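C-alpha cells as discussed.
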C-alpha cells in the first residue's frame, strides 16, 4: 500500500501576514526615503549639505556604536547565563513548571537571543542618536581660556566634556542594570536561581555572574560620585547658583568618602564570588546606603542648619561673589555699570524744546497695533496681507532739500495671503502655480502721522517701488506667511500685483531658489511628500520648473544651523536693493559654572509675544550662558541663507564652526548695507535686563540683602505679562547725538516705582554699548503701570476717551514709551481709535505725555508737551501728531 505524502496547506493567514509585513516595510521605506531625499535636496539648494550629512553621519555613528554596545552586552549576559546553567536541576514543582517554558524556548534560543539583543540595541541606539549635539560638542570643544574658581578646570570641561560624561555614565548604568535584570531572569529560567526549591538557592556560577555585575554597578556609582563633585558648581543649595559653603565644606568631602565606599563595595562584590552566602555584598550595600543617607544627606543638612544659617551672609559671601562674576561674564553684562541719573521733575518748557535729539524722534506708531492700518492703506489686492505685529528698523534717507536724516521706521513686507482668494479661485493651479509670492516693502516713519494715519515713505500703491530706499527686487517668495509650497517657472503666469494703469501684472520666476522639479522621479517624490498627485500629473510643470518649500525664513535658518537658538522676532530690511530677512542666532549652554540659570521661554515672554502670531516664543530650555554669536539673513526672492559670525570670540560658536566647517562666514564679510540694519536682539536684551535687575549689585552683602533689586514692570495694558522693550531713535544722556537703541525701564522689586532705565545701542559704531541710568534711592517716580493709571484718571483724558468710545468705536492704547528727556524721564503713549467691525482700523487721535506729576494730552505730540510743560515745550515736535505730515525733524547720525 503506497503512502501518500502530505503537503503543507497554505492558509490565508500564512500568506497574508508576510505580504502585509512586506507592504508595510515598503511603505515605511518610501516615506523615510522621500523625506530624507527631499531634505537633502533642500540642503543642497541652500548650500548647507555639509550640515545635513554631518548630522546624519553622527546620528548613524551613535546609533551603531551605542546600539551595538548595548546589544552585545545584553546578548553576552544572556548567553553567559544560559551557558552557566546547572547540568542537573532538582525535581520540584517550581522546576517542573519552568521546564515547560524551557522546552518551548530552547529550540528558538538563538532567534530569541537575537531578538532581545536587537530590541535593547535598537532602543539604546535611537536614544543615543538624539544626543548628536552632545557628541559634537565633546569631540570639537575648544577652550574658553577661563577656569572655574573651585576646581580650576577650563570652562569648556563643564560645557562640552561634562555633559558627555554624564550621558556616558547614564548609558553604562542602564546597560549594567538591564544586564543584571536579564541575567537574573535567565538564571532563574534555567535553574541557576531556585526560589522555591530546597537546598542551595543560587548556584556558584550564577552567584559569580551576578556578583561581577553588582561590582560593575558599584564602580559606576563611584564614578557617579566623582562626577557629582564637579556638578557642585551648578548647585542651587545656597543663596546663589554654584557651590555654596555647605557644598564645599560638607558635600564635596561627603562625595569623596562615598566614592571610596563604593570602590570598597565593588571589591566586596568580587570577593563574594569566593565566599558562601551573600553576607559581604549585603553588608557593603547596607554601608553604602547608610553612608549616602548620613554622610551625603544628614551631615550637609546639619552644616547648613547650624553653621551656615546663623551666619549666612558672611559664610556665603565668597560664593555669592563667584556667582556674581560668573553670571555677568556668562550673559555678557560684565561691563554694564549703573550711572546715577537725577531724573529731574522741575524742567522748563524751554529746556524740553531744546531737546532735539529725542523729542522730534519720539515714536507715535505702535508696530503691534497698526497691522490693520497698514492693511487698509497698503494691501492693494485681497490676496496680500501684513503680519499681525509689524517691525521697527532705522533708515537714512535723503529729503527734498538734499539733507540726509536718520530715524526709525515701522516696516513690513506685503506678503501673499491665499485666504483672500475668492471661493471660485481656490484650486490647485491658483494656489500653487499662479499665486506664488508677495510683493513690496512698506515703511512709514514712526514719528509722523497725517490725519491719524502713517505717512508712507516707501510702499505706495504705484508699484514698482524705487523710492527712498532703492528697492530693486521687491517680490517675496520666502516670508513669514508664504504658502507651504509653490511651483514656479511653469507654463502658468504668476500674479504679480498691479501693473501700469491699475492692470493685473504677471511675472515668471527667474531666480535659482528652491529645487528643480523637472524630472519624473523628483515630481513623484515631492508628490509623495506633499500628498499631491498634481505635482506628477500637471502638464504645466516643465523641465525648468522649480519647487519652493521650507519658505519661512526661520525654518530655513533652523535647518541650516540646527545648533542655533533663534530670536523670536525676525525682521525685513532693504539690503543692497533686495528685501532681506534678518535673524539673530544665539549659542547657549547650561554648563557655565556658578552662573545663574534662566528659563528662556519664561524670561523672554511679554505682552507682545503673548498676542503676536508672528513672534516665535522661546522653548522652556534652561540656560546659564548666551551669546548673540550669529547674524543670519534670508533673501526674500531666492531664499539664500547666509550665516555671519558676529561674536567670533565665543567658544561655543567656534566649537560649532569646527563641527560644521565653512558654514558660517566671517564677520568681515558683512556688507555696509547689511551692517546698517543689524540691531541688538530683543530676546537677548530681555534675558540681560532680567539679570541686570539683580546683578547690577556687585557687593556680595548687598546682593544677599536683595534690598536694591529691580525687576521688569508688568505691561500697562493689563495683560499680566511683562512690558516688552522698545526700539527707539533717541539721544541718551551719555551720547552726543541720537542713536538707535533698544530700551526698557526697570522698577524696584519692592515697589512699583521706577528704579532704572536701561538702553543698548544698535548703531554700528557703538553696537552693544549699554547705558544704565540708576535713579536716586527712594525716588518716587511712578512706574509704567502707575503712569497708565494716572493717564486714564486724568480729566482731559477721561473726557476724550468717553467721546471716542461712543457707539461704533473703541480706543486702543499704544506702547507706553519711557524716554530720557531734558535730564528727566518722559512717558509718551499714543491713543488710537478704531471703528468696530471687520472694516475698522486704528487711527491716531491723541497722545499722552507724563513727566513727574504733570500730564499732558493732545491731538499732537507738540500740543501734549505744551500741556505737560507749558507753552513752547512742543516746538521740537511740531508736526509729529495728527495734522500735516512732516518728518518730525529726525536727527542725523546713527545708521
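Sequence:
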Amino acid at each position: 500500500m503506497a503512502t501518500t505524502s502530505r503537503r503543507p496547506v497554505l492558509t490565508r493567514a500564512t500568506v497574508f501576514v508576510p505580504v502585509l509585513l512586506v507592504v508595510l516595510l515598503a511603505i515605511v521605506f518610501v516615506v523615510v526615503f522621500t523625506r530624507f531625499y527631499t531634505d537633502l535636496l533642500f540642503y543642497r539648494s541652500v548650500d548647507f549639505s555639509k550640515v545635513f550629512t554631518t548630522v546624519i553621519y553622527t546620528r548613524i555613528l551613535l546609533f551603531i556604536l551605542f546600539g551595538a554596545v548595548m546589544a552585545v552586552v545584553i546578548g553576552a549576559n544572556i548567553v553567559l547565563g544560559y551557558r552557566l546553567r546547572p547540568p542537573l536541576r532538582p525535581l520540584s514543582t517550581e522546576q517542573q513548571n519552568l521546564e515547560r517554558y524551557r522546552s518551548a524556548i530552547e529550540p528558538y534560543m538563538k532567534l530569541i537571543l537575537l531578538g532581545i539583543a536587537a530590541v535593547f540595541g535598537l532602543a539604546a541606539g535611537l536614544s543615543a542618536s538624539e544626543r548628536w549635539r552632545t557628541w559634537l560638542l565633546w569631540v570639537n570643544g575648544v577652550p574658553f581660556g577661563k577656569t572655574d574658581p573651585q576646581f580650576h578646570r577650563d570652562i569648556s570641561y563643564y560645557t562640552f566634556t561634562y555633559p558627555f560624561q554624564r550621558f556616558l555614565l547614564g548609558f553604562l548604568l542602564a546597560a549594567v542594570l538591564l544586564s543584571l535584570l536579564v541575567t537574573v531572569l535567565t538564571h532563574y529560567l534555567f535553574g541557576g536561581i531556585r526560589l522555591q526549591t530546597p537546598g542551595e538557592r543560587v548556584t556558584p556560577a550564577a552567584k559569580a555572574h551576578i556578583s561581577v555585575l553588582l561590582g560593575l554597578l558599584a564602580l559606576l556609582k563611584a564614578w557617579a560620585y566623582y562626577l557629582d563633585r564637579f556638578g557642585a558648581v551648578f548647585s542651587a543649595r545656597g543663596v546663589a547658583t554654584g557651590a555654596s559653603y555647605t557644598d564645599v565644606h560638607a558635600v564635596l568631602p561627603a562625595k569623596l568618602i562615598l566614592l571610596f565606599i563604593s570602590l570598597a563595595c565593588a571589591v566586596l562584590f568580587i570577593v563574594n564570588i569566593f565566599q558562601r552566602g551573600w553576607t559581604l555584598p549585603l553588608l557593603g550595600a547596607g554601608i553604602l546606603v547608610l553612608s549616602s543617607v548620613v554622610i551625603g544627606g544628614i551631615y550637609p543638612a546639619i552644616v547648613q542648619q547650624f553653621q551656615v544659617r546663623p551666619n549666612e551672609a558672611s559664610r556665603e559671601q565668597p560664593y555669592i561673589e563667584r556667582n556674581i562674576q560668573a553670571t555677568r561674564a556668562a550673559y555678557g553684562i560684565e561691563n554694564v555699570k549703573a550711572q546715577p541719573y537725577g531724573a529731574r521733575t522741575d524742567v522748563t518748557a524751554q529746556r524740553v524744546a531744546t531737546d532735539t535729539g529725542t523729542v522730534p524722534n519720539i515714536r507715535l506708531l505702535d508696530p503691534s497695533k497698526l497691522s490693520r492700518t497698514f492693511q487698509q492703506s497698503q494691501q492693494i489686492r485681497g490676496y496680500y496681507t501684513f503680519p499681525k505685529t509689524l517691525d521697527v528698523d532705522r533708515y537714512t534717507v535723503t529729503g527734498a532739500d538734499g539733507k540726509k536724516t536718520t530715524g526709525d521706521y515701522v516696516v513690513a513686507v506685503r506678503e501673499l495671503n491665499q485666504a483672500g482668494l475668492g471661493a471660485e479661485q481656490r484650486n490647485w493651479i491658483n494656489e500653487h502655480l499662479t499665486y506664488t509670492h508677495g510683493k513690496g516693502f512698506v515703511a512709514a516713519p514712526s514719528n509722523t502721522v497725517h490725519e491719524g494715519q502713517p505717512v508712507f515713505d516707501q510702499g505706495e500703491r504705484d508699484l514698482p517701488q524705487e523710492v527712498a530706499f532703492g528697492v530693486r527686487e521687491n517680490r517675496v517668495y520666502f516670508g513669514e506667511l508664504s504658502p507651504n509650497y509653490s511651483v514656479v517657472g511653469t507654463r502658468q503666469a504668476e500674479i504679480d500685483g498691479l501693473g501700469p494703469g491699475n492692470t493685473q501684472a504677471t511675472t515668471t520666476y527667474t531666480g535659482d531658489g528652491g529645487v528643480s522639479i523637472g524630472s519624473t522621479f523628483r515630481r513623484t517624490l515631492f508628490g509623495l511628500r506633499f500628498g499631491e498627485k498634481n505635482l506628477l500629473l500637471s502638464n504645466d510643470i516643465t523641465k525648468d520648473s522649480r519647487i519652493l518649500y521650507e519658505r519661512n525664513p526661520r525654518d530655513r535658518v533652523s535647518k541650516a544651523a540646527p545648533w542655533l537658538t533663534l530670536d523670536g522676532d525676525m525682521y525685513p530690511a532693504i539690503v543692497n536693493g533686495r528685501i532681506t530677512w534678518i535673524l539673530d542666532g544665539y549659542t547657549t549652554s547650561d554648563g557655565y559654572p556658578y552662573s545663574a540659570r534662566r528659563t528662556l521661554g519664561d524670561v523672554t515672554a511679554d505682552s507682545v509675544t503673548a498676542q503676536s502670531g508672528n513672534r516665535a516664543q522661546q522653548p522652556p530650555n534652561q540656560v546659564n550662558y548666551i551669546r548673540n554669536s550669529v547674524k543670519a539673513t534670508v533673501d526674500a526672492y531666492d531664499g539664500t541663507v547666509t550665516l555671519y559670525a558676529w561674536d567670533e570670540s565665543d567658544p561655543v560658536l567656534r566649537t560649532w564652526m569646527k563641527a560644521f566647517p565653512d558654514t558660517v562666514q566671517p564677520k568681515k564679510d558683512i556688507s555696509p548695507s547689511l551692517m546698517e540694519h543689524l540691531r541688538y536682539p530683543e530676546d537677548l536684551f530681555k534675558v540681560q535686563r532680567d539679570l541686570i535687575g539683580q546683578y547690577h549689585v556687585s557687593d556680595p552683602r548687598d546682593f544677599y540683602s536683595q534690598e536694591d533689586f529691580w525687576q521688569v514692570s508688568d505691561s500697562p495694558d493689563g495683560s499680566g505679562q511683562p512690558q516688552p522693550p522698545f526700539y527707539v531713535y533717541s539721544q541718551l544722556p551719555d551720547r552726543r547725538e541720537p542713536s538707535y537703541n533698544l530700551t526698557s525701564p526697570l522698577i524696584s522689586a519692592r515697589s512699583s516705582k521706577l528704579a532704572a532705565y536701561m538702553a543698548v545701542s544698535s548703531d554700528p559704531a557703538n553696537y552693544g554699548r549699554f547705558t544704565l541710568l540708576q535713579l536716586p534711592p527712594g525716588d518716587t517716580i511712578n512706574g509704567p503701570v502707575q503712569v497708565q493709571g494716572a493717564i486714564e484718571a486724568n480729566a482731559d483724558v477721561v473726557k476724550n476717551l468717553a467721546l471716542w468710545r461712543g457707539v461704533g468705536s473703541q480706543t486702543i492704547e499704544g506702547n507706553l514709551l519711557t524716554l530720557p528727556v531734558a535730564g528727566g524721564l518722559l512717558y509718551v503713549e499714543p491713543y488710537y481709535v478704531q471703528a468696530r467691525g471687520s472694516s475698522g482700523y486704528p487711527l491716531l487721535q491723541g497722545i499722552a505725555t507724563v513727566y513727574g506729576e504733570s500730564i499732558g494730552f493732545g491731538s499732537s505730540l507738540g500740543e501734549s508737551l505744551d500741556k505737560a510743560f507749558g507753552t513752547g515745550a512742543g516746538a521740537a515736535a511740531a508736526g509729529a501728531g495728527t495734522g500735516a505730515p512732516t518728518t518730525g525733524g529726525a536727527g542725523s547720525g546713527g545708521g
